[in-house]
Automatic annotation (TrEMBL):
Keyword Lipoprotein: yes
InterPro entries registered for this protein in UniProt: CYRI, CYRIA/CYRIB_Rac1-bd
Keywords: Lipoprotein, Membrane
Domain of life assignment: Eukaryota
Protein name in UniProt: Family with sequence similarity 49 member Ba
Domain CYRIA/CYRIB Rac1 binding: 29-290
Keyword Protein biosynthesis listed: no
GO CC list: membrane
Locations listed in the record: Membrane
Length: 300
């Protein structure tokens, strides 16, 4: 069974943060949930494992570009139309799976926030005491930004899905039987279209989820949520700007993991804090994350 917390690079990341004398709250690789946390931890663990499969599939994404091109160039040749349709249907089925997975990720974020932000204890203390859940929060952010990176660099996704939508719309107009028998009908395709139209669909999902969490829980002080996010950003900041800790990373992938988590929590913070993350009074010092991201991009 795949356990995303046992990745070599991520284990190294968790170890160094845990051994930092200034930050002893980020999840360690072998952090185990308490009996009270286990139900949430188990649910999130299953979703994280599925997320790894999603990333592996997306990395190997092969579009139906050639089949679609031939079908468009010769619209009267039925054989080419059928060939393009046969190529694109299983692809859209996969895209449907990813869309449904985003909804699972939405739920997981809320599960974790209920544990990390809804207590009377300060968020820093919550992160220290519930390291297994905080670790899962970091892995969700890592998955989210990695998925969106792959989506942005795979234009075939939009092209394939656009062709599919045009085709089922034509089927509906012509009252052909194919439209109603498809797994992704016209109504569902419209919802998926809104998801994939975003440059960063998974991050938008989490941003919407945390905004809804705050609005649905007016009894939970907003500071609980924002302090949880800013603390995690500070952990990553220490790891990236302190040579003593960064020099221990044996792989650039470990640095990328840290960057993704940091960028993710900053964006979520910016969505829920009334003044955002980019003001002088913010608990997050944005200059370091921006500089670290630019430096990493130049070195990659």
């Amino acid at each position: 069974e795949y356990d995303p917390t046992k990745s070599k690079n991520i284990t190294e990341f968790d170890y160094h943060i845990n051994t930092s004398p200034t930050v002893a709250l980020c999840p360690v690789a072998d952090a185990q949930p308490s009996d009270m946390e286990r139900a949430t931890w188990e649910k999130v663990k299953l979703v994280l494992a599925e997320g790894q499969l999603v990333l592996e599939e997306l990395q190997m994404y092969r579009g139906a570009g050639e089949e679609i091109r031939q079908a468009i160039q010769r619209p009267t040749v039925e054989r080419l139309q059928q060939r393009a349709w046969a190529a694109v249907v299983p692809i859209v089925s996969k895209l449907h799976t990813y869309y449904e997975f985003s909804q699972k990720l939405d739920s997981c974020l809320c599960y974790l926030l209920e544990e990390l932000a809804c207590s009377e204890a300060p968020p820093t203390q919550q992160l220290e005491q519930k390291q297994a859940l905080a670790q899962q929060f970091a892995h969700i952010l890592h998955f989210t930004l990695r998925f969106d990176e792959l989506k942005m660099t795979t234009p075939a996704i939009q092209n394939d899905f656009s062709y599919y939508r045009r085709t089922i719309s034509r089927m509906k107009i012509n009252k052909l039987s194919g439209e109603s028998s498809n797994e992704v009908n016209n109504e569902l395709a419209n919802r998926m279209s809104l998801f994939y139209a975003s440059a960063t669909p998974m991050l938008k999902t989490l941003s919407d989820a945390i905004t809804k969490f705050v609005s649905d829980n007016p009894d939970v002080p907003l500071e609980n949520t924002t302090d949880c996010l800013s603390t995690m950003a500070s952990v990553c900041k220490v790891m990236l700007e302190t040579p003593e800790y960064r020099s221990r990373f044996s792989s650039e992938e470990t640095v990328l993991f840290c960057l993704r988590v940091m960028v993710g929590v900053i964006i979520l913070y910016d969505h829920v804090h009334p003044h955002g993350a980019f003001v002088k009074t913010s608990n997050i010092h944005v200059r370091t994350p921006v500089s670290a991201t630019v430096i990493c991009s130049l070195n990659s």
